[in-house]
Structures are given as C-alpha cells and as structure tokens.
Amino acid sequence: MNKNIVSEKISTLCADKNITKAELAERSGLTISQIELIESSDIVPSLSPLIKIARALGVRLGTFLDDSDQFGPVIHRQFDVQQPATFSSQLSSANSHLDFFSLAASKTGRHMEPFLIDIKPSTTHEPILSSHEGEEFIFVIRGSVKINYGKHTHILQQGDSIYYDSIVDHLVSAATTEPAQIVAVVYTPI
C-alpha cells in the first residue's frame, strides 16, 4: 500500500458518496489542511486520522488496505514481499518511523487489521500521542518498544505484549536507538 492508493481510495469514496473535503474534515474531526496533507504526502500521517476518515466515510479501515476479494482464509508466507505503508506518529510529514506490512490485505470483510510493523528510532524527543476508536494488541518480535498510553509509559521487550483501548491517547515507538519489530492487530468498529 502506498499514499497514492490511499489517496485514490479516499477520493473515490468521497466522490461515490458525494462528500466534499470540507464535509470529510467535519465528519472526521480533522482540518481541511490535514485532509489535504494526507492526499498530497508520500507518507500517511498516523493511523489515527486514517481510522477517523474510514469512520467518517462509513467503511472499514481495511478498505484502504484491501488488495483483492478473498472470502476464505488468507495465508501470508514469511517470504511474501510487499511494499510497506509508512506512517508517521503525527499529522505532518516529519517523524515518519513506522513501516506497516499488512498481513491480511487480500481478506475482504475483515474486522481486524493484522500488521507486521518495523519501528525505526524516532528523531523527535517530544511524543505526540493520538487516539481513535477501537482496540489494539501488540506483540514485540524484536527490540525494545516504548508505549506511551495516557499518562503512563510502558517498555516492552522481545516476547512481551500489550492489549489496550485505542480511545486513550497513545504512541508506539522504539525505546532505544535500535529499530524494533512488532505484530499489531488493530480493531476499529465501523
């Protein structure tokens, strides 16, 4: 998945539903400039606004990630190659540090979004948290991960996991100067 596909799908859905940028901004709680940034950037800034846009359009988050219409089980092999979707932790083109690899892009009608995520150390020292409806489960495969959750900070090591409500402000980042890798499952209600 890349920005062009996400932008294309957002534009198509808005056109199909006869929704203007201003209406999309109002429904999603984002500003028009944030919507324009998402449409024009090479990086999708944070998963949170994408989830808010999906809710505003009345579609699953997976609508932006779907590659085909597979109704049965979907198998993702460890050597399957795909381009990551690079997300930032904030609504700007700076501070991109999360590369998402969808593990179920070809599964249509799904209610969970499983990802393999490579986390690069962030150059920003001030955490910018975000929130969205739903729940998240994270399992650390490699490295050390810092989870800012509300007013608390949790450090997870390889083999550790966390499950939390996404409505609470949160941020996932590398805990050290070394990259980390996680499996994350995101659930967002429609």
What does this 3D model show about the protein?
It is a single chain. By secondary structure, the protein is α+β, with helices and mostly antiparallel strands. The protein has two domains: 3-64, lambda repressor-like DNA-binding domains (434 Repressor (Amino-terminal Domain), Orthogonal Bundle), CATH 1.10.260.40; 85-187, Jelly Rolls. The protein contains four helices and ten strands, in the order H-H-H-E-H-E-E-E-E-E-E-E-E-E. It has helices at residues 3-16, 21-28, 32-40, 47-57; strands at residues 44-45, 85-88, 96-102, 112-119, 135-142, 145-149, 152-156, 161-165, 170-174, 180-187. The strands form two sheets. It has a seven-stranded mixed beta sheet, with helices on one face. Helix 2 (21-28) crosses helix 3. The protein is globular and about 45 Å long. The protein starts with a helix and ends with a strand.
List key phrases describing it.
alpha+beta; 434 Repressor (Amino-terminal Domain); Jelly Rolls; 7-stranded mixed beta sheet; 10 strands; 30% strand
Between the first and last Cα atoms, what is the distance in angstroms?
Answer: 21 Å
Name the helix and strand elements from N-terminus to C-terminus, one letter apiece: HHHEHEEEEEEEEE
- Tally of domains: 2
The CATH superfamily title of the largest domain = Jelly Rolls
Strand order within the widest beta sheet: 1-2-3-4-10-5-8
Tally of DSSP β-strands: 10
* Fraction of residues in helix: 10-25%
Write the CATH fold name of the largest domain: Jelly Rolls
* CATH architecture level-2 label of the largest domain: Sandwich
Tell me the β content. 25-35%
**Strand count, sense and closure of the main sheet?**
7 strands, mixed
Q: Given the structure, what is the number of helices?
A: 4
Can you tell me the CATH class of the largest domain? Mainly Beta
Question: How large is the radius of gyration?
Answer: 16 Å
